[in-house]
User: Which sequence fits this backbone?
């Protein structure tokens, strides 16, 4: 697995974990949920390598 693929997978996993944790403690809002969806979508769709890699 390439470094970029690992980065995308990690970002998507973190978004899912953060969403679940915030839902459990009652701090998940529609705005946060939408931003997490956007982060996950961008991470999964990103085909461009990082400039630092």
Assistant:
């Amino acid at each position: 697995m390439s470094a970029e693929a690992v980065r995308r997978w990690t970002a998507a996993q973190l978004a899912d974990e953060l969403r679940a944790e915030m839902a459990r403690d009652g701090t998940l809002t529609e705005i946060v949920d939408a931003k997490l969806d956007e982060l996950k979508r961008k991470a999964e769709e990103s085909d461009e390598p990082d400039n630092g890699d």
